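ok trying this again, last paste got cut off
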Amino acid sequence: MQDAIDALRGRGLSRIESAATADELEAARIDLLGRKGEVTALLRGLKDVPADERPAAGAALNRLKLELTDAFAARERDLRGAGEAVTGLDLTLPGAAPVPLGTAHPLLTVLEEICDIFYGLGYDRGDGPEVELDYYNFTALNFPDDHPARDIQDTFFLSDKTLLRTQTSPVQVRVMEQVTPPLAYVFPGRVYRNENADASHSSEFFQIEGLCVDREISLVDLRQTVDAFVERFFGAGFETRFRPHFFPFTEPSVEVDMQCVKCGGKGCGVCGQTGWLEIMGAGMVHPRVFAAAGYDEDAYTGFAFGMGIDRIAMLKYGVDDIRLLYENDLRFLNQFRGVL
């Protein structure tokens, strides 16, 4: 890994220094630091680094990212200065009639921020179809035939065997059918449920689920993962707790609460005076799900978790109505310009 980091440092700095225009510099930035850039690819590859070498490799990658960022800023200043010397004008000043610029949608920003956190924990990213088979959405996840979620009052069926997925959990089974443990994945995506829209519900929304499978995985590993996510996303100092629950695809199952981000656990209107906010469901993967995916349920254990990206975004930015995130009202969306 260190050899790859050193090679990328030399190659990246050389490309930045050789950029002759702002467009070339921006193209270099995307290739090196973009979401699909070379640095991100190395970050995702941390999961393949031996555990004892992973902290040093992660620190070296962070230093490389900062070094490249500083190099981009310095080269941008050089190019700006060269333009002023030739024309006597600051070419970076806006025109007389500036064109309004767009901004990243808060849901997309939260989704990518969550994924980045789990990339740093060694997770990969999986995806699956939104039009899903009943088998993957329900049967392979241990839903009985008479489960209420199979009713048309809850699910958008397209035929007897196809539907709009109600969760991103089907991707877990699809990935397990193709990947041999150990594995760690997150699955972000859009899901659909037959619900009336109100301040806290929508017929379409975003979820992100996680799956970790290996030998001797336990609830302790799940708890540590949840705590690491909460600390990195919301900041230090927020306690979490597990409450017993039931999900067909996990056993045991838990609901995960964290201290209210508004009142810090003292009790307020946001948390219903309890001091706690429910943020995700989780648990140990049910042996029947392993059997459906072709895993030896006696050899492997794993945990899974899922949360609504919409709800996380509402907590992070103090949004009190989920419909605001989907109405494309620029008066609302422009509030996030320069914040995300």
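PB: full thing came through this time. The beta strands are 124-125, 131-133, 162-164, 183-192, 204-214, 240-247, 250-259, 276-285, 301-308.
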